[in-house]
């Protein structure tokens, strides 16, 4: 029995341990869960140390770039969260991280998501590229109506009555269709992962094990 086949057995047993939660919570599931969390924590700790801290902090400090002492001190302040008496010191590191992250992500999100979605919504109702295109025209009309109705639904300055109320209800339909499609896509992705694990159990574990036992 090769080392690779032993690894397949370990992976298969851990997969079954995780699946056992479908029956009820049990020690096998807890063992697999704790093992996964522990290995993940150790792996990412080593990964971030060698790929983030070393090149972005220790190497610059070795090159006498002492301005990097500022993020080092802020990072150390976060560790004070582990000591209840001095946990207030960690607020400085957390405040800086949250403020910096919010500022950077706001600009990135605005440019990569909001502006692109606005540009993608500003469409001609009648598509005349290369001649009249009926399919593209219908698609453009649906997008413009759906976005407009969805925005009206979130307009709360006036009661949703009359034309405004009808448009808001139409917006709800578009929102529900969008949420349903997103949820369906998520379920489909999870089902594909499940299929992959089942194929692994059957093709890489059960069949080779039967062949090994039968001697074929």
UniProtKB/TrEMBL annotation:
<feature type="transmembrane region" description="Helical">
    <location>
        <begin position="31"/>
        <end position="48"/>
    </location>
</feature>
<keyword id="KW-0812">Transmembrane</keyword>
<protein>
    <submittedName>
        <fullName>Uncharacterized protein</fullName>
    </submittedName>
</protein>
<keyword id="KW-0472">Membrane</keyword>
<feature type="transmembrane region" description="Helical">
    <location>
        <begin position="68"/>
        <end position="84"/>
    </location>
</feature>
<feature type="transmembrane region" description="Helical">
    <location>
        <begin position="168"/>
        <end position="188"/>
    </location>
</feature>
<feature type="transmembrane region" description="Helical">
    <location>
        <begin position="93"/>
        <end position="112"/>
    </location>
</feature>
<keyword id="KW-1133">Transmembrane helix</keyword>
<feature type="transmembrane region" description="Helical">
    <location>
        <begin position="6"/>
        <end position="24"/>
    </location>
</feature>
<feature type="transmembrane region" description="Helical">
    <location>
        <begin position="132"/>
        <end position="156"/>
    </location>
</feature>
